[in-house]
Specification:
With about 270 residues, the protein is an alpha/beta fold. It is built from ten helices and twelve strands. The protein has two domains: about 180 residues, P-loop containing nucleotide triphosphate hydrolases (Rossmann fold); about 80 residues, no CATH class. The radius of gyration is 19 Å and the shape is globular.
Length: about 270
């Protein structure tokens, strides 16, 4: 695909292609979860992946972050073809994610949960960390400074020492976002970041996603069922249905696509 810069209809310039999915097919036994799908993600954009339940969206996100390996097709990242890799190796490449179901350590504080996002940045060994001298001490201080900045950014100073299991759902989702941000990702994958939230919580999360993209320059790919949110915050949208791609373009292009209306919105036509 063409790697040239891209200008959105509202005049916002986004960068070159950083990730490219080429003819991806993923099967589980006799079930085809993804069927010959190609699309790209450009630097600095918010790229949404939408579709009805069972469309294959989470499977595609798992391909992007290396949890699943497709039987057919290629994944290209920053101009290089990516072979089978473990998720921790993908994380070291600068890809972080949140999960559809909250995956936090409920007995640990907000601060400690976000600190786990720095794991791939830690260079000192277990012995050095146990002794906590020299390099290990400096590393701990540096990591703590970054985590405190994330806490300030997400406006969760008041709960920094609170066990996350005691927090309401919306704040737990914000802590999970903080853990992903602590890894300083170049590409941030969000799996239904607003699922189960009320209107106010969705507004807060939308604002933080936009701020992460704008202030940090983080490229974001997200799955989200709230079409209003998707249309408001996304630069481009790819639409899946029964494992196939049925739409790809700007929010307006996708909104007006008859195939998307029929398959995703369920509108009947003569």
């Amino acid at each position: 695909m063409d790697g040239a810069a891209y200008v959105t209809p509202d005049g916002r310039s986004i960068g070159d292609v950083v990730m490219e999915m080429r003819n991806i097919t993923l099967r589980f036994g006799g079930v085809t979860a993804i069927r010959d799908i190609s699309f790209d993600i450009r630097e600095g954009e918010i790229r949404a992946i939408i579709g009805p339940n069972g469309a294959g969206k989470s499977s595609m996100l798992n391909v992007i972050n290396g949890f699943y390996h497709p039987q057919e097709g290629e994944v290209w990242f920053r101009g290089a073809k990516r072979g089978p890799m473990k998720p921790h190796a993908i994380a070291r490449q600068g890809i972080a994610r949140t999960f559809q179901n909250i995956a936090l350590f409920s007995g640990m504080s907000t601060l400690d949960n976000i600190m786990t996002g720095r794991f791939t940045k830690m260079k000192s060994g277990l012995l050095a960390q146990a002794i906590w001298k020299g390099r290990a001490e400096r590393e701990e201080v540096e990591n703590r400074e970054i985590v405190e900045k994330v806490i300030d950014f997400l406006e969760i100073q008041a709960i920094r020492k609170t066990p996350v299991g005691r927090l309401p759902y919306g704040l737990q989702k914000r802590v999970e976002l903080g853990r992903a941000l602590a890894a300083e990702p170049k590409l941030l994958l969000l799996d239904e970041p607003m699922a189960g939230m009320n209107v106010e919580e969705k507004e807060d999360m939308s604002r933080f996603i936009l701020d992460v993209n704008d202030e940090f320059g983080t490229t974001i790919a997200l799955i989200e069922h709230d079409m209003g949110v998707v249309m408001d915050i996304s630069d481009r949208v790819v639409v899946m249905d029964y494992g196939a791609k049925i739409g790809d373009g700007t929010p307006d292009e996708v909104r007006n696509s008859q195939a998307v209306i029929d398959a995703y919105l369920g509108v009947a036509h003569d």
